[in-house]
Amino acid sequence: MPRSTTPSGPLFSDFKPASFRGAPGFFRLGQTSANVWWLLTPEDEPVLLRAVAGVNRHGRAGPPPVRRSAYALTVESLYDPAAPAAWEKSTAARLHAWGVDTLGPWTDSGLVDRGFYFTMPADFVHARIPTLYGPGLRVPDVFDPRWPEAAAAHAAAVASSWRGRRELVGWFTDDSLGWGQSFSAPVTLLQSCLSLEPAFAAYHAAWEFVLASHGGSLEALARRWGVHLLHREHIRQMTRDNRALAHPAFNEDARAFGHEFARRYFSETGRALRAADPGRLVLGCRFAEPPPPGVREACAWPDLDAVSWRLRAGENFTTQADTAGGTMPQWITGGGLGHSDFRRLPVRDGTGPTRLERLLRAGREGLVAACRDPRTVGIEWAHWADGGDDAPPFGAGLVHADDHEAVEHTELLAHLHARARRLHAGAERSQKPGFTSE
Q: Fewer beta carbons below 10 Å: N end or C end of the chain?
């Protein structure tokens, strides 16, 4: 397994004994007396891990697409398919040269035993239980009475090959679930569940939840929410039209329901993973967007050990971290810059910095801020290779579709990784209340 070559960092005696999460002999989390969170290796070395996701022969996060990517075709032409070790050796050497010590979800299995740590996705959304879909919604139906049993069976299946392996840092419960109230769909998780078909357990749970305090009266509920509501179908029609209920009383109910939904999700996924792979860290569900307040509040130890969320370049890091994870230790996913980020930036008149310059600066500032934050325990670059939607001057990968190094990213990443541990060692939370583990 990799070891740090930089001496910067706390001593083991600097950690608060009551703060440790995880089991000795595996990766653990701990907080120092200066209120800085660190991961500790199985040998109890404090580390800030530096990861890349989607390191595989098709080059992207997620399973292989039906149509082979340009990068996949390049790999086939440059490396003999009958000798897969050539690509594995070349890729591992590149990653080590850029200071990468951890490989994230969707990593090629051939890179195991090539000197990296690993994080793995459990993908509970694929457990044998109905999945709920709607505007900004994609979550398992945690009110289904089969959910605990389905979660346990799923965890046992996915964890079997990693059980007891010391190079595995921990498990992500899922990736990019939809919890409602997304950037593109303002409808809450509660409103979506109220709009489901009656075949889903979450539909009945949502209506029981909102009617319980109103004597089962739809009329009383409508008065409290300030809406015209003669039939349950009216809520479903509003959801189809992407019209969100927004009365303060409704928002209060939505927050409470979201908390209960997320509590059921995190408690069962955490319990299932710890039963299937004892002593392992549970690293959250890789939020793709800021979670609604009730969901965020349910992200708590001991159900999960850390929160994981996607960094958005150009936005204030502390605000993002507060919204996504609060005071919990945090694994930062989605690091990096892509063509979509470039397209979103407005062109400015005058002689100021160009979009290219502004985006490079935003990417650097976001990752540096992540390293300096006392809650951060790992940073992860989102993509190994450019995808089909990438174009000059920016792709999202560390290598282009022709397998050439994307120096606009790798130079930044190598420089940052070389000083990430020192940056984090200097992170001391001010006397802001609530940042201790006690």
A: C
